[in-house]
Design goal:
Blueprint lengths: L1 E5 L2 E5 L5 H8 L22 E4 L6 E4 L10 E3 L3 H17 L4 H9 L19 H9 L6 E3 L6 E3 L14 H4 L45 H6 L2
Parallel strand pairs: 1-5
Antiparallel strand pairs: 1-2, 3-4, 3-5, 6-7
Protein backbone atom coordinates (compact mmCIF):
# COMPACT_ATOMS: atom_id res chain seq x y z
CA UNK A 1 0.00 0.00 0.00
CA UNK A 2 1.13 3.56 -0.66
CA UNK A 3 -0.04 6.89 0.73
CA UNK A 4 -0.70 10.03 -1.29
CA UNK A 5 -2.63 13.23 -0.69
CA UNK A 6 -5.57 14.20 -2.89
CA UNK A 7 -6.98 17.69 -2.30
CA UNK A 8 -5.29 17.67 1.11
CA UNK A 9 -6.80 14.33 2.16
CA UNK A 10 -4.53 11.34 2.81
CA UNK A 11 -5.41 8.27 0.74
CA UNK A 12 -3.96 4.76 1.03
CA UNK A 13 -4.22 2.72 -2.15
CA UNK A 14 -2.62 -0.34 -3.63
CA UNK A 15 0.49 0.12 -5.73
CA UNK A 16 -0.44 0.35 -9.41
CA UNK A 17 -3.69 2.22 -8.73
CA UNK A 18 -4.19 5.12 -11.12
CA UNK A 19 -4.86 8.64 -9.86
CA UNK A 20 -8.34 8.42 -11.40
CA UNK A 21 -9.13 5.27 -9.44
CA UNK A 22 -7.69 6.75 -6.24
CA UNK A 23 -9.69 9.97 -6.61
CA UNK A 24 -12.90 8.09 -7.35
CA UNK A 25 -12.28 5.86 -4.33
CA UNK A 26 -11.98 8.99 -2.15
CA UNK A 27 -15.11 10.52 -3.68
CA UNK A 28 -13.44 13.25 -5.72
CA UNK A 29 -15.11 13.41 -9.17
CA UNK A 30 -12.90 13.70 -12.24
CA UNK A 31 -14.55 14.06 -15.68
CA UNK A 32 -13.59 11.52 -18.35
CA UNK A 33 -14.43 10.92 -21.98
CA UNK A 34 -12.01 8.48 -23.60
CA UNK A 35 -11.87 6.45 -20.39
CA UNK A 36 -14.46 3.71 -20.00
CA UNK A 37 -14.80 0.97 -17.41
CA UNK A 38 -13.79 -2.38 -18.86
CA UNK A 39 -11.40 -0.87 -21.40
CA UNK A 40 -7.70 -0.19 -21.00
CA UNK A 41 -6.66 3.40 -20.10
CA UNK A 42 -5.76 5.48 -23.14
CA UNK A 43 -5.33 9.10 -22.06
CA UNK A 44 -6.36 10.60 -25.38
CA UNK A 45 -8.90 13.27 -24.47
CA UNK A 46 -6.89 14.80 -21.56
CA UNK A 47 -10.16 15.74 -19.86
CA UNK A 48 -9.12 13.91 -16.69
CA UNK A 49 -6.03 16.06 -16.09
CA UNK A 50 -5.01 16.66 -12.49
CA UNK A 51 -2.18 18.72 -11.01
CA UNK A 52 0.59 16.87 -9.20
CA UNK A 53 3.49 18.27 -7.19
CA UNK A 54 3.72 21.66 -5.56
CA UNK A 55 4.91 25.13 -6.47
CA UNK A 56 6.95 25.68 -9.62
CA UNK A 57 7.51 21.95 -10.05
CA UNK A 58 3.82 21.11 -10.31
CA UNK A 59 2.57 19.71 -13.61
CA UNK A 60 -0.54 18.35 -15.28
CA UNK A 61 -0.94 14.63 -15.98
CA UNK A 62 -3.82 12.47 -17.18
CA UNK A 63 -5.35 10.80 -14.13
CA UNK A 64 -6.48 7.69 -16.02
CA UNK A 65 -2.94 6.69 -17.02
CA UNK A 66 -0.75 8.05 -14.19
CA UNK A 67 -0.05 5.58 -11.39
CA UNK A 68 -0.23 6.75 -7.77
CA UNK A 69 3.13 7.31 -6.07
CA UNK A 70 4.17 7.37 -2.43
CA UNK A 71 3.89 10.88 -0.97
CA UNK A 72 2.43 12.38 -4.16
CA UNK A 73 0.38 15.57 -3.82
CA UNK A 74 -2.61 15.70 -6.17
CA UNK A 75 -5.17 18.42 -6.82
CA UNK A 76 -8.18 17.50 -8.91
CA UNK A 77 -9.72 20.94 -9.37
CA UNK A 78 -7.10 23.65 -9.05
CA UNK A 79 -7.46 26.83 -11.11
CA UNK A 80 -4.95 25.47 -13.61
CA UNK A 81 -6.81 22.15 -13.92
CA UNK A 82 -10.22 23.77 -14.35
CA UNK A 83 -8.89 26.18 -16.99
CA UNK A 84 -7.29 23.30 -18.91
CA UNK A 85 -10.42 21.16 -18.80
CA UNK A 86 -12.53 24.00 -20.14
CA UNK A 87 -10.13 24.46 -23.05
CA UNK A 88 -10.24 20.71 -23.78
CA UNK A 89 -14.05 20.84 -23.83
CA UNK A 90 -13.93 23.78 -26.26
CA UNK A 91 -11.65 21.78 -28.55
CA UNK A 92 -14.01 18.80 -28.37
CA UNK A 93 -16.95 21.05 -29.21
CA UNK A 94 -15.06 22.30 -32.25
CA UNK A 95 -14.84 18.73 -33.58
CA UNK A 96 -18.17 17.32 -32.46
CA UNK A 97 -20.58 20.08 -31.37
CA UNK A 98 -23.74 17.98 -31.47
CA UNK A 99 -22.57 15.17 -29.17
CA UNK A 100 -24.85 15.05 -26.15
CA UNK A 101 -22.01 13.79 -23.96
CA UNK A 102 -19.79 16.73 -24.90
CA UNK A 103 -22.64 19.23 -24.57
CA UNK A 104 -23.40 17.83 -21.10
CA UNK A 105 -19.72 18.21 -20.18
CA UNK A 106 -19.80 21.82 -21.39
CA UNK A 107 -22.86 22.55 -19.27
CA UNK A 108 -21.44 20.81 -16.19
CA UNK A 109 -18.16 22.75 -16.42
CA UNK A 110 -19.69 26.15 -17.17
CA UNK A 111 -18.28 26.41 -20.69
CA UNK A 112 -20.22 29.25 -22.30
CA UNK A 113 -18.19 29.82 -25.47
CA UNK A 114 -16.17 27.93 -28.06
CA UNK A 115 -13.22 29.98 -29.30
CA UNK A 116 -11.75 27.56 -31.84
CA UNK A 117 -12.55 27.15 -35.51
CA UNK A 118 -15.55 24.92 -36.01
CA UNK A 119 -14.50 21.76 -37.83
CA UNK A 120 -17.56 19.48 -37.65
CA UNK A 121 -15.28 16.45 -38.01
CA UNK A 122 -17.40 14.43 -35.59
CA UNK A 123 -14.74 11.83 -34.69
CA UNK A 124 -12.71 13.02 -31.70
CA UNK A 125 -10.25 10.08 -31.81
CA UNK A 126 -11.07 9.00 -28.26
CA UNK A 127 -10.30 5.40 -29.23
CA UNK A 128 -13.30 3.91 -27.44
CA UNK A 129 -14.45 2.02 -30.52
CA UNK A 130 -10.98 0.64 -31.27
CA UNK A 131 -10.47 -0.64 -27.73
CA UNK A 132 -14.01 -2.02 -27.52
CA UNK A 133 -13.56 -3.94 -30.78
CA UNK A 134 -10.21 -5.38 -29.70
CA UNK A 135 -10.61 -5.91 -25.97
CA UNK A 136 -14.27 -6.81 -25.55
CA UNK A 137 -15.37 -8.10 -28.95
CA UNK A 138 -11.99 -9.78 -29.64
CA UNK A 139 -12.19 -8.79 -33.31
CA UNK A 140 -9.64 -6.01 -33.99
CA UNK A 141 -11.66 -5.12 -37.07
CA UNK A 142 -10.83 -1.40 -36.85
CA UNK A 143 -7.87 0.64 -35.73
CA UNK A 144 -6.06 3.97 -35.99
CA UNK A 145 -4.61 5.04 -39.34
CA UNK A 146 -2.20 7.82 -40.20
CA UNK A 147 -0.61 10.43 -37.96
CA UNK A 148 -1.20 13.99 -36.87
CA UNK A 149 -4.02 15.77 -38.67
CA UNK A 150 -4.39 12.77 -40.99
CA UNK A 151 -5.10 10.36 -38.12
CA UNK A 152 -8.39 8.53 -38.47
CA UNK A 153 -10.17 5.32 -37.49
CA UNK A 154 -11.18 2.60 -39.91
CA UNK A 155 -10.05 -0.59 -41.57
CA UNK A 156 -6.65 -1.01 -43.28
CA UNK A 157 -6.73 0.50 -46.78
CA UNK A 158 -10.51 1.06 -46.33
CA UNK A 159 -11.11 -2.56 -47.26
CA UNK A 160 -14.14 -4.17 -45.63
CA UNK A 161 -13.00 -6.25 -42.66
CA UNK A 162 -13.58 -9.99 -42.83
CA UNK A 163 -13.58 -10.26 -39.03
CA UNK A 164 -16.23 -7.61 -38.34
CA UNK A 165 -19.40 -9.25 -37.01
CA UNK A 166 -21.53 -6.09 -37.36
CA UNK A 167 -22.18 -6.24 -33.61
CA UNK A 168 -22.53 -2.46 -33.32
CA UNK A 169 -20.43 -2.25 -30.15
CA UNK A 170 -18.23 0.43 -31.70
CA UNK A 171 -21.22 2.68 -32.32
CA UNK A 172 -22.65 1.94 -28.88
CA UNK A 173 -19.64 3.47 -27.11
CA UNK A 174 -18.96 6.32 -29.56
CA UNK A 175 -19.74 9.82 -28.20
CA UNK A 176 -20.17 11.09 -31.77
CA UNK A 177 -22.66 8.39 -32.80
CA UNK A 178 -25.02 8.83 -29.87
CA UNK A 179 -28.10 11.00 -29.40
CA UNK A 180 -27.42 14.52 -30.63
CA UNK A 181 -28.20 17.94 -29.19
CA UNK A 182 -30.30 19.84 -31.72
CA UNK A 183 -29.66 23.56 -31.67
CA UNK A 184 -31.03 25.68 -34.50
CA UNK A 185 -28.05 27.98 -35.12
CA UNK A 186 -25.12 26.14 -36.80
CA UNK A 187 -22.63 28.81 -35.78
CA UNK A 188 -23.53 28.40 -32.11
CA UNK A 189 -21.42 25.53 -30.79
CA UNK A 190 -22.89 25.46 -27.29
CA UNK A 191 -26.58 24.79 -26.86
CA UNK A 192 -26.59 25.54 -23.13
CA UNK A 193 -29.84 23.65 -22.67
CA UNK A 194 -28.60 21.84 -19.57
CA UNK A 195 -26.64 24.71 -18.03
CA UNK A 196 -27.30 26.04 -14.55
CA UNK A 197 -26.90 29.72 -15.39
CA UNK A 198 -26.64 31.04 -11.83
CA UNK A 199 -25.12 28.35 -9.58
CA UNK A 200 -24.57 29.32 -5.94
CA UNK A 201 -21.31 28.19 -4.40
CA UNK A 202 -19.64 27.74 -1.03
CA UNK A 203 -15.99 27.87 -0.05
CA UNK A 204 -15.11 24.27 0.76
CA UNK A 205 -11.35 24.29 0.22
CA UNK A 206 -8.32 25.29 2.21
CA UNK A 207 -6.40 26.10 -0.98
CA UNK A 208 -6.60 29.54 -2.53
CA UNK A 209 -6.72 28.28 -6.11
CA UNK A 210 -9.03 25.28 -5.69
CA UNK A 211 -12.46 25.25 -7.28
CA UNK A 212 -15.46 23.35 -5.94
CA UNK A 213 -15.05 19.63 -6.69
CA UNK A 214 -18.29 18.48 -5.06
CA UNK A 215 -20.75 16.60 -7.24
CA UNK A 216 -23.54 17.25 -6.67
CA UNK A 217 -22.68 20.68 -5.31
CA UNK A 218 -23.87 21.05 -1.70
CA UNK A 219 -24.91 24.67 -2.24
CA UNK A 220 -26.84 23.72 -5.39
CA UNK A 221 -28.64 20.93 -3.52
CA UNK A 222 -29.58 23.27 -0.67
CA UNK A 223 -30.83 25.84 -3.15
CA UNK A 224 -33.31 23.37 -4.61
CA UNK A 225 -34.99 22.74 -1.24
Amino acid sequence: MITLHINGVAARVERGTTLLEAAQFMGFPIPTLCHMDGLSPYGACRLCVVEIGEGAKSRLVSACTYAAEEGLTVRTSSTRVVRTRKMVIELLLASCPQSKTIQDLAAAHDVRQQRFRQEYEDCILCGRCVRMCEEQMMAKAIGFRGRGENRSIGTPFDVKSDVCRLCGACMQVCPACELRCTYTEPEKAICGGCANLSPPCVDVNEFDDMMCYMNPCVACEIGRR
